Amino acid sequence: MKYRSLFLKIFFCFWLAAAAMIGTLNLMLWFSFAQDPNPERRRGALGEALNLYAESAVQVYDSEGPQAFEQYVNRSLKEAGTEIELFDGDGKALTTPTAAEAASVAAEIKGTNQHVSHVTALGRITWGRPVTAPSGRVYIFVTRLRQPYVFRGLPPLGIALSILAAGVISYLLALYLTSPVKKLKSVVQSFAEGNLEARVAPQLGSRHDELADLGREFDHMAERIAALISSQKRLLADISHELRSPLARLTVALELARKSTTGKGEAALDRIEMESERVNALVGQLLALTRLESGAERVPPQMIALEELLEEVIDDANYEAKPLHKDVKVLQLAPCRVRGSSELLRSGIENVIRNAIRYTAEGTAIEVSLTTRLDNAVITVRDHGPGVPESELQHIFEPFYRVGEARERSSGGVGLGLSIADRTIKLHGGTIRAENVNGGLLITIGLPLTTAPATAHPVAERMPVA
Amino acid sequence: MVPVLLIDDDTELSKLLEEYLQSEQFDLHAAHDGPGGLEKALANHYSAVILDVMLPGMSGLDVLKQLRQKSAVPVLMLTARGSELDRILGLELGADDYLPKPFNPRELVARLRAILRRASTGGTTAATQPVHLAGVDLHPDSRSVTCNGKPIALTGAEFDLLYSFLRSPGKIISREDLTQAALGRPMSPMDRSIDVHVSNLRRKLGPYDGEQERIKAIRGSGYVYLLPGEQQ
Fold this sequence. Notes:
heterodimer, B: elongated
């Protein structure tokens, strides 16, 4: 689930970043207030200003009369948005209009020497105090002003809620960013599995970002690859047809010639037949090799019972070996499940065993075994032949490579069998190697085992390989 | 002279084969495309049809499919070597045998004779007693088979295969013997057509009630026809 992990990465990174920001901000605010050594001082400064304000307002009323006071009140309302109300010592309003709060504050103050402040909704403060004018008269001064707003950080519940909200946003963001990646991935996967028609565009909708561009680029690439593969396949089929049609005619013509030839001509005709069969085999193997190397051949995820497949190949090989006074012996057959194409694997293994039959000495047996080692199925094929010089061991899987000039033609075969085996095994994610053992060549094939799910039935279809 | 139809787009090959088969007592007629070949095969009474898979106009497999709807004439299919799918499909669609191209004409004659022999002896098998076994009724006279009362359409090879199985149920029959019985020729190396015929037959008959397969492969030996409840 690589997509999931990308999703989780984006999700958690964004969430963590958002949570860290919320936390840091609140911490900073908290610290800036916690560090203020005297929170009362700020309030004190405001109180001092209000005291002065109250005294000067009272002085205006007391010495200059209600009219001057009215002007003073209007000016301060206009300039600072501050409402002022004045009451006499008994709490009777001296100005109009009177807000209910102001009156109740005045009533509270009446007869005391305390200042009173009430904070109402919307952050308004109603503040009042008794003031004694220089004339000796007592007034109650009440003002209504806007409290300066100070953000002191969120409460714990607020922090939790905002982190939660950040989580939801991060989740949606991660989903938005990774969903096209997921779609792209499924298309690429389907393409890799051989569905050459797979395209991203229909899944993208109206998206027009870099990811959508990537998808479109993939589609261009897929288009080209599909065209290349189909032309390659067509070419292979054409070559096969064009080379084999004359061969087919040749074999019929040869038999016709045979009917009207006697004596000396027969040997030459035999030779022609043998050579045309050789060309035919060569064409077949070349095509098989080209197909393997071109990538036109793909491995289906078919479950194969390797021991059954091997047994069938050995049966067939014995059929061929017996007339040559050679034998194919089974040492061990462990049950093994591998994934791949039974047809391709059969031809790959068959080529190795046929090669062994070709080189093993007359009257000897080829020994084949199938065991498991760690996560691999291991097939060994050992012959009792001349072996291969150490220096040439690494080359025997190359096309047309032949060991020793002398054995060239007499051994039969066209020198492609081991190359086909090599490409087939590698296509299945396996390994193949050759080594000399006492009096013979040992070829070891490793194929990755698959752990069979309980429901899957192993497939060992009997499929011929021409 | 035995009349045989060859459907192959290679006209030169057709001429050569005509000449060759003439000397083997076959009267070869040729058609060079799918629709023409199908028309000829249905209009005339041939003893056998040799059908190339690669045909212009209409693939050999389509020709075979349409031919089989109306005719049971023995069909020998020519496939491209290495094209397993064509061969398996061909045998599944009811071809009697196949030969990879390019082929040796002697082999072609041998295969032709084998399917002709089977087609001719099929109708007049000596032991014509019907066989009844575990729901399957086989009538050698009419070459018809019913399974649980339902008629089953079998090709010639599949019929002979089933006949072999029903005559010795519960016994292992080797692939060599089955090839000889069903295809009328010895098994050749790397030849797996018998397996395709067996798997077709198994599919057409279907399993017994308890999901038990009727025909079981015995590794390295051959096949066995099981009776209900029998475990092998």
